[in-house]
């Protein structure tokens, strides 16, 4: 499964610019025959903009999602992205997986809300992180702070996920997450983890970049620096690793 991970500056309310960026990524996906594009957390309408979350959040059948579904279908490439989701009077920090046919593969509402802003604006999700088929394998979703809790990744692996895709918005000062914890989650569960962060600043909040893709053996497959970057990675599946090693990793961790 070939992934394009986009480390980009935050949207900061520029919805048209966000769609232009996705169009560019889908053009690249056609050229390199990618299976899925991964974007950061709350790409629509921006992360550190609680004013815009309340003003602009949309339901899953709203114009943002409909346009993204049409774009994915036209490109023949799946998309995983974060957005502010409105459900009645409630707002959720949501990750969507849209298939190459434009269908909605999965929705995940962030469980582990981080910091005062998120907790003031969003409700935590009630459902387990999803596992779904994408690019010939089983994939799970988490969002940012979720990956720091070992049980979420372990639960996805226990339900058969081979890969976890993680839209994130990790600030400067928390680089231990992409430098250490992402690799720990990967090797604990013998699972590939792709972690897509922002760079630059938004409304006074600086992001650390460092987006990373880590294989099931804990090795870094690709890593971004602190500027805008695109990582194009052929993600290995479980069949690409010695089965005795993966089996030992999973059994040893789950026995603790």
Strand order within the widest sheet?
A: 5-4-3-2-1-14
Tell me the CATH architecture.
4-Layer Sandwich
| Low-pLDDT segments, ≥5 res | none
**Integer-rounded radius of gyration:** 17 Å
Level of helix content? 25-40%
Tell me the strand percentage band: 25-35%
Taken together, the total number of domains comes to 1
CATH topology name, in short, is: Nitrilase/N-carbamoyl-D-aminoacid amidohydrolase
Q: What about the largest sheet?
A: 6 strands, mixed
What is the mean pLDDT?
A: 95
The assigned structural class equals: alpha/beta
Gross morphology: globular
Concise structural overview:
The chain has seven helices and 14 strands. It is of the alpha/beta class and 256 residues long.
Features:
about 260 residues, alpha/beta, six-stranded mixed sheet, about 30% helix, globular, hydrolase activity, acting on carbon-nitrogen (but not peptide) bonds, in linear amides, Aliph_Amidase/BUP, Nitrilase, C-N_Hydrolase_sf, hydrolase
Describe the SSE topology:
Layout (H helix, E strand, L loop, with lengths): L1 E6 L7 H18 L3 E3 L11 H7 L6 H13 L2 E10 L2 E9 L5 E6 L5 H7 L9 E4 L2 E5 L8 H9 L4 E5 L8 H14 L2 E5 L4 E2 L2 E2 L5 E3 L5 E4 L5 E6 L8 H12 L2
Parallel strand pairs: 1-2, 2-3, 7-8, 8-9
Antiparallel strand pairs: 1-14, 3-4, 4-5, 6-7, 9-12, 10-11, 12-13
Helix pairs in contact: 1-3, 5-6
């Amino acid at each position: 499964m070939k992934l394009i991970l986009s480390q980009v500056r935050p949207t900061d309310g520029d919805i048209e610019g966000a769609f232009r960026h996705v169009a560019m990524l889908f053009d690249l996906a056609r050229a390199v025959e990618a299976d899925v594009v991964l974007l950061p957390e709350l790409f629509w309408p921006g992360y550190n903009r609680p004013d815009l979350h309340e003003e602009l959040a949309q339901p899953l059948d709203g114009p943002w999602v409909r346009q993204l579904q049409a774009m994915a279908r036209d490109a023949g490439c799946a998309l995983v992205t974060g957005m502010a989701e409105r459900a009645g009077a409630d707002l959720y920090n949501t990750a969507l997986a849209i298939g190459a046919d434009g269908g909605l593969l999965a929705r995940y509402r962030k469980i582990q809300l981080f910091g005062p802003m998120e907790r003031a604006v969003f409700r935590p999700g009630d459902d387990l992180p999803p596992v779904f088929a994408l690019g010939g394998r089983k994939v799970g979703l988490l969002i940012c702070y979720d990956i720091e809790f070992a049980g979420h990744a372990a639960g996805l692996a226990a339900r058969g996920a081979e890969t976890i895709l993680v839209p994130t918005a990790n600030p400067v000062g928390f680089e231990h997450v992409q430098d250490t914890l992402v690799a720990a989650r990967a090797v604990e569960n013998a699972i590939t983890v792709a972690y897509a962060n922002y760079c630059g600043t938004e409304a006074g909040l600086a992001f650390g970049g460092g987006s990373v893709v880590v294989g099931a053996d804990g090795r870094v497959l690709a890593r971004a620096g602190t500027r805008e970057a695109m990582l194009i990675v052929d993600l290995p599946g479980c069949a690409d690793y010695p089965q005795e090693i993966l089996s030992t990793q999973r059994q040893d961790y789950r026995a603790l």
